[in-house]
Amino acid sequence: MRIADPDKTTADYCVAAAEELFAVDSVKPDDIDGIVFVTETPDRPIPHTSAIMQARLGLPNRTIAFDINYGCAGFVYGLFQASMMIASGYCEKILLCVGETSTTRINAQDKSLRMMFGDAGAAVILTAVEGARPSAFNFHVEGDKFSLLTIPAGSFRMPHKHGVTDVLTFDEDGNGRTLENLYMNGIGVMSFIVRNVRRLIVDTLKMSGLSTEAIDLFALHQANALIIDHLRQRLKVPQSKIPFGAGKIGNTVSASIPLMLSTLYSGVNPSLKRVLVCGFGTGLSIAAGVIDLSATKILSPLEI
Question: Is 18 helix (H, G, I), strand (E, B) or coil?
Fold first, then answer.
């Protein structure tokens, strides 16, 4: 598992990834006119971290800068937001940054989650291309089940209260956490995934007029190997089309899809003409889309 040093934030990882992009790509900071930062672990409650990142990266003052508070489906939500910003005509080049330092929210006594999550950030540059095939997106949210994957305390609904929200308790399996730590009902979340993810993927393919066989790669949220294997069987596609690449990294939440692509598909891959991306988790929510990565230069992972 990759665990962030105490002095590293999600923004630090995303800034390093963006700087690497600028170092090897023809796109430079002055070319960017929008930055979208997707995370549930921002630097500060106020201001939005994207504004701080704009300054750190030397992006123009005309840049649109805002945060999206989203978890496992955040990469697809970020792609959707960036595509709308480009479609508006105001932006031509968007820097999309996604990531999480989830381990800071997990109690050291929680064995159920401690070995599942890792910390990482990713950066993607999206550019307007004349005549490009529109991407298709699809979404599903069941907000009534939010408590299955949550941090109950520490914000405005349940502020930190010494002796109340920071008290360590143990469940029947011996996992310890406070109300200020991440909690996940694994069975409930898995049930949500089993009931809904395959259906949303199939619906997204129908929207796009594509069959399962026409998809070159299913780039799914890298929650764990069991979930990826389950979806692979349900969709009846070969392992090569639904890879799992997070075995040594862990679940990096919104960064898991771009990190998997970086780990397994660095370079330019003309065969990735039709890629279905799908994230699922906190909310509980799912987001899916069909995108073209055939001309995208994918860089190898960078460790800092």
Answer: helix
